[in-house]
């Protein structure tokens, strides 16, 4: 395994943060075969992925020692040193950069048109050659993209490490939730086995969710290039990029993390990046639904929040999922499910502000438009 340190742009004299990437494979270098990229805790206060990365490292070390790693695997066990260091009055604030207010998982560079214009004269009828050409050009464009701030340099480095991968797994978590995934519709056929291995109850599909999050920056280039070039050049969906929501923020246990790491290793073995017999595909425990059918439940009033239904429950439209109680008047406001669906996530805070999103139910019909992700 090769360890590489990537310094970020220095925000002030006397300070320096860095990203650290672990590289597995033949001589820890690209082998010409498949590449998988896995990162943890892009939101610095979402820690289940960091523990999964720890157990992945242990398992990959053992596999490497026995010569079983046949592809290139890049692991970034802590993808956001900026967010990891942000504390205010003992509260960890790892979702937004305090300098800009920007979400660490938004606003990745869009270099689709730039790369397309650069490589178009060289594209041909060989799909594999086109993929290799586009990957080289994309990586070069990412590395050459401007970065005026520490946050921009972090985004650039993460994209540089991942943009030429066949598989990209971005390990996150929700507040309180079941295991679930996010990916593009074009990625779903390749994602479905991953969902089985991870035991995901739900995969949310969106062509473009808004503000160019990390996973879409890696995967959507391919279907957009395919649309741009049409029938002139064969362009496959060459990257499976998935946001993996590892249940809830407090689901940080060795038992869960070791099992999740093993399931990721099983998927990588199934895909051929790890030698040995393919593991059998587990039976599915969930399905894919449109992200536009994931309905946020808002509280119209402020008060003490208590839930009546657990995450993972199948609910009907009109079912009461929570109460918001005014401690002064004793008035109880019922929060109801707007659709039939899977009650898959809820907040861990137990005081709701007026207008606060407190839970999500995934229905089967696309009902929302515009930006589909939360802040």
UniProtKB/TrEMBL annotation:
Annotated InterPro entries: AstE_AspA_cat, N-alpha-Ac-DABA_deacetylase
First-level EC class: hydrolase
Enzyme nomenclature, EC number: 3.5.1.-
Pfam family, one: AstE_AspA_cat
GO molecular function, one term: hydrolase activity
Highest taxon listed in the record's lineage: Bacteria
Keywords: Hydrolase, Metal-binding, Zinc
Cofactor: Zn(2+)
Keyword Cytoplasm: no
Domain Succinylglutamate desuccinylase/Aspartoacylase catalytic: 33-269
SUPFAM superfamilies to which the protein is assigned, alphabetical: Zn-dependent exopeptidases
Name of the protein described by the UniProt record: Succinylglutamate desuccinylase/aspartoacylase family protein
């Amino acid at each position: 395994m090769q360890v590489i340190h990537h310094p970020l742009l220095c925000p002030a004299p006397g300070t320096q943060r860095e990203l650290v990437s672990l590289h597995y494979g033949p001589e820890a270098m690209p082998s010409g075969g498949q590449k998988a990229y896995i990162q943890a805790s892009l939101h610095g206060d979402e820690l289940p992925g960091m523990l999964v990365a720890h157990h992945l490292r242990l398992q990959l070390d053992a596999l490497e020692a026995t010569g079983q790693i046949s592809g290139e695997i890049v692991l970034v066990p802590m993808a956001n040193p900026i967010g990891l260091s942000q504390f205010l009055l003992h509260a960890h604030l790892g979702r937004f950069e305090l300098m800009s207010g920007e979400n660490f998982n938004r606003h990745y560079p869009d270099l689709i048109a730039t790369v397309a214009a650069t490589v178009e004269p060289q594209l041909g009828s060989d799909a594999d050659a086109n993929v290799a050409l586009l990957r080289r050009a994309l990586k070069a464009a990412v590395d050459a993209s401007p970065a005026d701030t520490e946050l921009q340099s972090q985004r650039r480095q993460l994209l540089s490490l991942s943009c030429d991968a066949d598989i990209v797994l971005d390990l996150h978590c929700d507040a309180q939730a079941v295991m679930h995934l996010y990916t593009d519709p074009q990625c779903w056929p390749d994602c479905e086995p991953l969902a089985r291995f991870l035991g995901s109850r739900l995969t949310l599909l969106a062509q473009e969710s808004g503000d160019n999050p990390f996973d879409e920056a890696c995967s959507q280039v391919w279907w957009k290039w395919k649309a741009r070039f049409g029938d002139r050049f064969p362009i496959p969906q060459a990257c499976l990029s998935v946001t993996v929501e590892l249940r809830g923020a407090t689901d940080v246990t060795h038992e869960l993390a070791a099992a999740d790491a093993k399931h990721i290793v099983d998927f990588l073995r199934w895909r051929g990046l790890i030698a040995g017999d393919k593991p059998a595909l587990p039976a599915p425990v969930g399905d894919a639904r449109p992200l536009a059918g994931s309905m946020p439940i808002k509280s119209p009033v402020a008060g003490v929040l208590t839930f009546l239904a657990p995450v993972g429950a199948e609910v009907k439209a009109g079912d009461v999922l929570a109460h918001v109680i005014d401690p002064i008047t004793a008035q109880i406001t019922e929060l109801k499910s707007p659709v039939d669906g899977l009650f898959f996530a809820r907040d861990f805070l137990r005081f709701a502000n007026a207008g606060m999103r407190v839970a999500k139910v995934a229905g089967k019909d696309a009902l929302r438009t515009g930006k589909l992700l939360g802040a």
